[in-house]
Amino acid sequence: MTDWFIPTIHTKFHIDFEWWEKSGKDFRLYLRDQLCPQCRQRFSDHRDTEMVDWVDPETAEVKRTDALWQCLRTMCAQEPDYIHPRLPLVTAIFRVFLKNNNAPLSPAELHEEFIPWKMPEVILRTLAGREVQLGLRPVSGE
Predict the structure, then answer these.
(1) What is the value of pTM for the model shown?
(2) Phi-psi domain of 93 (left: phi exceeds 0; alpha: psi -120 through 50; beta: other)
C-alpha cells in the first residue's frame, strides 16, 4: 500500500499475506494455533501438511487449499464458541477472516455479522492502530 489514508468503519480489511512474509513470522504456525483441540491433535505440526481440494460453498468452484485452513473452516469454525467475547479482539477478528476465507470485511460488517459485542469504532481502532497485528490491514486500493 503506497497511499496513506485514514480508514473508516466502512474500509475493508483482510489478512495481508505479504505482511506475514515480510515480517518473518510463520502464518501457518499461527493458523495451527487457531485450530480446535481435535484438529490440533490431527495436525501435530504446522509443517508438511498436504494441500486438499475444497469446494467453495457459494460458487461450487473446486480450489486447492491448505489442509490446516480446510480443517479450520469445515470443523473448528463451525463450533459455536469458535469466536466469542472472551477472545482478545484481534484474535476474534483474525478468526473471522480465517473462517470466511479471507473475504474482505469492514469494521461495520465485522460488528454486524460476527462480533456484535464490540462496536465498529472499537474494531476500527484495533485494526487501524499504529502497529499491524496478525497481518490485518486495509485492502489495497480501498
Answers:
(1) 0.86
(2) alpha
